[in-house]
Amino acid sequence: MTALLAVEGLSVTFPSPHGGKLTAVDGVDLLLQAGEVVGLIGESGCGKSTLARTIVRLHQPSAGRILFEGQDVGALGGRDLRAYRKRVQYIFQDPYSSLNPRYSVRQTLVEALTVAGLHRGAAQVSRTEELVGLVGLPLSSLDTLPSALSGGQRQRVAIARALALEPRVLICDEPVSALDVSIRAQIMNLLLQLQRDFNLAYLFIGHDLPLVRRIADRIAVMYLGAVVEEAPSDRLFEAASHPYTRALIAATPTADPELERTRSRVLLSGELPRATDIPSGCRFHPRCPEAFERCPVEIPKRTLVEQGHVSYCHLSEESRVEGGLRVG
Ligand SMILES: Nc1ncnc2c1ncn2[C@@H]1O[C@H](COP(=O)(O)OP(=O)(O)O)[C@@H](O)[C@H]1O
Ligand SMILES: [Mg+2]
Asked: Are the CB atoms for 150 and 182 separated by under 8 Å?
């Protein structure tokens, strides 16, 4: 089956401010099927947004490619590129800067429809009314400027504008991180509802792990530009294989104060290395509590831990070999 969106060996580099180059994304493979929600997690600066922005052609890959329905996105031009830009929509973290402050909600939606060549005249009017309804805003909001809306309402408008183009994929780049904690759940529920109603595929970037777990079918963990583990959401939390994933999960505060006091934390030691200076071998080895001789010298291979669960770690490789020998 052809994936809806396939990221293959994707790398993205930037010129470093101190000379040389900075590798923000380093050989990432990722698949997104129609109607699937893939979560993307990892510390700030690990390349999540760069990966996402490259998918919508805001950055150029330095290696690898992106396929949409089997077609190389980098080779699209003219009408095909315009079609792709409708199919894959981006929801930014900050709804304050993503809307034109001089446009009413109606103007924002009409502009999106007009640029996309969708609907005209009366049909456009009814479509804008339908769109605000879909995102839970009252009809009266159509004549409102962004400055009169709350953060949550603005994010609803940004979502309506994305939906206007009848997308197949929404790239959600920390869509609730900038919002008040009290309204995050409302926007998450809206995204879940829309995903089901329209069978949308999401690439959902977030740093609130329980929240990503709730929405995602599958989660990929990024570290210093590379995916280090990928698993069905529940399996990632129940049986993380990569020491980085385990540290990331252990560092997540829980709502349970008792658990907070008693659990043993696997804390991340040392600082996140710079993307201009990616460590040799396994890029996580300088911070890994389980590093051994192979780690600084050999790049870990993609290892299948269980169905749908891959890890890039020498320990996973070795335990697989041992397991195989025991069984054999
Ligand atoms: N436009 C850019 N120019 C130069 N460096 C960038 C640019 N965008 C991101 N970076 C760098 O790329 C790395 C990854 O950043 P980013 O993708 O924003 O990470 P994340 O979204 O995971 O926090 C960081 O080191 C960041 O400083
Ligand atoms: Mg980001």
From this structure: no
Please state the φ and ψ torsions of residue 81, each to the nearest 5 degrees: -70, -40
How far apart, in whole angstroms, are the C-alpha atoms of residue 276 and residue 204?
26
Domain count, the chain: 2
Q: What pLDDT, in 10s, does the model give residues 40-93?
A: 999 999 999 999 999 999 999 999 999 999 999 999 999 999 999 999 999 999
Residue 204 sits in the same domain as residue 248:
no
Looking up tokens 């900075």 gives 22
250 and 203 inside one domain: no
Does any ligand 1 atom lie closer than 6 A to the CB of residue 237? no
CA distance 254 to 242: 21
Asked if 30 contacts 8 with a C-beta cutoff of 8 angstroms, the reply is no
If we measure between CA atoms, which residue out of 170, 248, 165, 253 comes closest to residue 205?
170
Ligand 1 within 6 A of CB of 50: yes
Tell me the per-residue pLDDT of 131-181, one tens digit each, with 9 for 90 and over: 999 999 999 999 999 999 999 999 999 999 999 999 999 999 999 999 999
Q: Nearest residue CA, atom 16 of ligand 1?
A: 47
> 54: Cβ–Cβ under 8 A, 6 or more apart, which residues?
10, 12, 25, 60, 61, 66
Give the range of the structural domain holding residue 309, as residue numbers without chain letter.
242-328
Cβ 45 under 6 angstroms from ligand 1: yes
pTM over 0.90: yes
Whose Cα sits closest to atom 25 in ligand 1? Answer: 45
Distance (Å) from CA 69 to ligand 2 centroid: 26
Q: How many residues does the chain have?
A: 328
The answer to whether residue 42 is domain-embedded is yes
Q: Give the pairing type, strands 309-311 and 63-68.
A: unpaired
On whether both 277 and 217 belong to a single domain, the answer is no
Q: Give 10's Cβ-side CA count (13 Å radius).
A: 31
CA 21 to chain centre: 24
Ligand 1 lined by 175 (C-beta under 6 Å) = no
Q: Is 22 near ligand 1, meaning CB less than 6 Å away?
A: yes
Residue 225 CA: nearest ligand 1 atom is 14
